[in-house]
């Protein structure tokens, strides 16, 4: 049967079968996709005229779009869409603008596909500047310097528990936090299985070794976890009073500009002598990088053992003071003093973040404070900390 005589479902199924011969990694992943038309209320939306996915593994498509594709292009489309699901792009959006995140994710996925000899489809977003970068990195670069002539390739059906969008095609089913974790585990497992499957077939994908190694060994840099946590909680809002730079080059799409709300990050440092100088130096370097990277972050530093020593806002004038911080104190620790100081300063609110760098041997507040708390721990295990707060273990080689 000629491909032009195939129904959309038949064409997608045939493309999935052919992927097994040419790209077994993506063929294995695509087995987790369910094909269906865009749901009512979205099918006629201008943003839903190609294809898209949701975090549950549903691949939505427009009949006319699939009918125009060759089998070769349909294989590329399948690999593109399942990559968004497998790489958890629909779960990692956080508070970012969803349409912009979609564009960043497309650049990342397409770079991987082209490095694995998939043919370029018409309308694919490609830019060598973004080669081998993360979606988070590309997103930030797009906000600062949007490229000209930026078309929209597909759509993502996000959950309704976060992010911002005025595009109806970006609205999907509600997902609970427990479902998010379950779906992340499911697709991490599928990624590893797909990689092993493709290795046995003698056709492992290029550029995936480091990702798969991290998944196999379940180790992610504590610095990466910390940065992602902060990125996902930096608030963004959008206004249509002033069009974004991208709107000036997109004649048919009007995108809002960003309103970057400020956020206070309080860095609490346990200065008792049980923390190593090497760990402290790395931690200070990461905090400086975060402070320098985001104009909307106001960073405050509080040091403490059994009492508060330093309390200052990190600015160009106090940068040297922060860099020269030394460990001191007589061995005792009571980090409740930092929580008390944060409350006194009027910063103990849910919109702010408190990052506690400590060995964990300290009394804790009796109840969960309003402020988002991250425990960056050099020694104590997760079980030694309160159930509230994000636990990150420091491992320095």
> Into how many domains do the coordinates divide?
2
Mean pLDDT across all residues, rounded? 79
Q: Return Rg in Å.
A: 24 Å
Helix and strand string, N-terminal first? HHEEEHHHHEHHHEHEEHEEHHEEE
Strand content: 15-25%
Helix content class: 25-40%
Strand order of the largest sheet: 9-8-7-10-11-12
Uncertain residue segments: 160-172, 237-256
Largest sheet: 6 strands, mixed
Separate helix tally: 13
Taking the alpha carbons of the first and last residues, their distance comes to 59 Å
Overall geometric form: elongated
| SSE-based structural type | alpha/beta
Beta strand count: 12
How would you characterize the overall build of this protein?
The protein has 397 residues and is of the alpha/beta class. The chain folds into 2 domains: 217 residues, no CATH class; 130 residues, Rossmann fold, CATH 3.40.50.410. It contains 13 helices and 12 strands. The chain has a 6-stranded mixed sheet, with helices on both faces. Helix 1 packs across helix 4, helix 2 crosses helix 4 and helix 2 runs antiparallel to helix 7. It is elongated. It starts with 7 loop residues before the first helix and ends with a strand. About 8% of the residues have low confidence.
